[in-house]
Amino acid sequence: MPTTDADGPAPGLSHRRPIAVTWGDCDAAGVVFYPRYYAWFDASTHAMLDAAGLSHHRLKAEFGALGTPLVRAEADFRASATFGDTLTAECRVAAIGRRSFTVEHRLSLGGRVVVEGREVRVWAEPGPADGPPMIVRPLPDAIRRALTG
Amino acid sequence: MPTTDADGPAPGLSHRRPIAVTWGDCDAAGVVFYPRYYAWFDASTHAMLDAAGLSHHRLKAEFGALGTPLVRAEADFRASATFGDTLTAECRVAAIGRRSFTVEHRLSLGGRVVVEGREVRVWAEPGPADGPPMIVRPLPDAIRRALTG
Amino acid sequence: MPTTDADGPAPGLSHRRPIAVTWGDCDAAGVVFYPRYYAWFDASTHAMLDAAGLSHHRLKAEFGALGTPLVRAEADFRASATFGDTLTAECRVAAIGRRSFTVEHRLSLGGRVVVEGREVRVWAEPGPADGPPMIVRPLPDAIRRALTG
Amino acid sequence: MPTTDADGPAPGLSHRRPIAVTWGDCDAAGVVFYPRYYAWFDASTHAMLDAAGLSHHRLKAEFGALGTPLVRAEADFRASATFGDTLTAECRVAAIGRRSFTVEHRLSLGGRVVVEGREVRVWAEPGPADGPPMIVRPLPDAIRRALTG
User: Fold this and answer.
1) Is the pTM of this model over 0.90?
2) Predicted ipTM?
3) Interface contact C22-A46, CB threshold 8 A
């Protein structure tokens, strides 16, 4: 039988970490102020890349990257969380394109999904001397392999 | 008589305000840290509601609302912005459902779009004494009319 | 026998935790944006109180507190920190007054002090029906004892 | 000859701006989360410097500065503020040393002081190739004059 893709997602880099929700993460309704979830997405992606040896410092020093800026982010908020809660943050590389990669995020509390979302990031390098400061470039092969996990 | 709707989106509440990008809004790449855009979306929505007489204080005191929490938010990041930039933040109510409403956001810099996004918000009231602290309820008619602009 | 206090600070509640500095904590100079240190002070104080059984939920439900708002905060920034660093955050209750208590904070990196500071917090309860929403009141004895450690 | 300083503070650069307190600035007690006040101090200082022609971009390009990092910050919180409030933020250069300068901040609401504080900042330049990335250096004369107002 052909394609094996049908059975599920291809393996990709993944990461899991706890997040302790603090007083300062919450708004006047006593629940997490929603932009904080995106800050946690960002921190989870960086933690995943760090754990795979792809720290920002190395991406910059070894691969000449300015970073992996976002071109899109989205989230569905399914339940609320409050200070004192400890969320489980899971993320994984869900797609790898020529110049971009997608990271899927899920934050849960005691097995119940609180937020699901995704980030689409690109590979950015410094632009030419007479051009824009940042240009999007193809992902280096070594990075592509590392993201595959 | 033809409807006038066909030519474009139905009129809805809208708002425009400047945002001065500060040093603290930017990350180590020198551009706005992306969760900040969502904080600005949130602040723009509140400013739009305030300007229409729908302050959180009034929603709570007069309509018994806990607030208008998010069920979904998304954004496309089309260009970067940095400290010293003054963005123009525009938002408008793009759809009104039975229990939810959608706010579209656009932030631009000198006519160039920096970020476009949308928030889907619901109408939340306190839950019953023996139930969850917050339940989603239909939008009151007065609110629905006010959101229409 | 005389008191032994003269030799050093009286014992007080204390706490220690790691803080992973993230990309989003840093500003365009690539170092921690200084207000973040105060957010970590606040989170450390809450973590210390939580660990001693003094969660905000309990302070509210059992003691009728609105919280322990700040009346003063200060910090000396002795070195910089950046994303990828893991700081050690230590705090302890350094003084207990009739209505206030002081928490001293120290964040260090590999034994080197990065930031030292202190918060002075008061005990706040809801005000009378015809008065201000929040009033400062004496610390309950049970809280005073718990803060002593 | 007596100095004229005795009558009051020497003239220094100053700035005033409004701050609209947003929903996201507030914590679960419904009042401003205190680290936000420091973010506003920082933004006020940058706005004051920008208005005097001392933008970060110019400090970097023309004077080789990395920035004006904090060595100390402190604040006294005298009253609370909440979303919907518009604060008046005033700041002024209160002292100029050889390598540092002090900015005093006052945020008020309808004439009532909400927060008073101060920042002590230093002049930082890139370190030598084989040394630390940042070193503190004397304030250039042109900067010193500009800070005098």
Assistant:
1) yes
2) 0.92
3) yes
